[in-house]
Design a protein that fits this description.
This is ABC transporter ATP-binding protein. It contains six helices and ten strands. The chain is α/β, with parallel strands linked by helices. Strands 6-7-8-3-9-10 form a six-stranded mixed β-sheet, sandwiched between helices. Strands 2-1-4-5 form a four-stranded antiparallel β-sheet. Helix 3 (109-119) packs parallel to helix 5 (154-166) and helix 4 crosses helix 5. The model has no long low-confidence stretch (mean pLDDT 92). The structure holds adenosine-5'-triphosphate. Adenosine-5'-triphosphate is lined by residues 20, 27, 29, 47, 49-55, 210.
Length: 230
Amino acid sequence: MTTALKTRTGLALRGVTLTYPDGEHRLTALDGVTLEVAPGEFTAVAGPSGSGKSSLLAVAATLLRPDSGEVLIDGQDAGALGDAARAALRRDRLGIVFQQSNLLASLTALEQLLVLESVRGGRPRGARERAAALLASVGLDGSKQHRRPHQLSGGERQRVNIARALFGNPSVLLVDEPTSALDHERGAQIVDLLAEVTRTHGTATVMVTHDRDLLDRVDRVLRMHDGRLA
Ligand SMILES: Nc1ncnc2c1ncn2[C@@H]1O[C@H](COP(=O)(O)OP(=O)(O)OP(=O)(O)O)[C@@H](O)[C@H]1O
């Protein structure tokens, strides 16, 4: 495994602008966004609907190429890479937790993590033990690891999502509205868990949220308005 050799400097966006086609014009979703998130730092991005939060995550996740500006993951400029190298960068350095739990219905919690190793081209020795330990560390012990998504609560599914995102030992963890399907108490527990894994795994974590009540649990809150960060 090369994970031990990763140089971790976190996430940096420099002067990022993103536009979408909008009839005969272009709509500016991100307008010169600059942002740095260091390893072990938990940053929230809050802002009204349509302000550009999801666009910011998609660009940071290297899923969308910005019109201009740079996206650096551990110092590597994603824009300078071809598609295959960008996919490898995503696989090796990024963990992504989507709003909708996109777990595979037929797999148990443990298998949701292990299937990633198969995609990566094999299952290194100890992967099963590591997956089990990771699930236990996010609060899913024992028999719950052998349940399928429909046999888990919304909060538990989100815990599996978080464990799965951490399984590749990412440097950067990107989280999109993780509490939208949860009540306040369970939402707060998930944000506390994200704060804990940010510390213990040393990830540069960015969470997009519109839930203001949870913002006192993060290291830093950035506000987004009309594609600009303040
Ligand atoms: N694929 C797309 N094509 C065209 N316009 C888009 C597309 N995706 C988003 N937009 C527009 O870009 C702007 C930013 O959208 P974005 O989804 O990033 O905002 P958001 O802050 O995440 O909103 P929400 O909180 O509602 O999810 C909005 O004006 C939106 O309508």
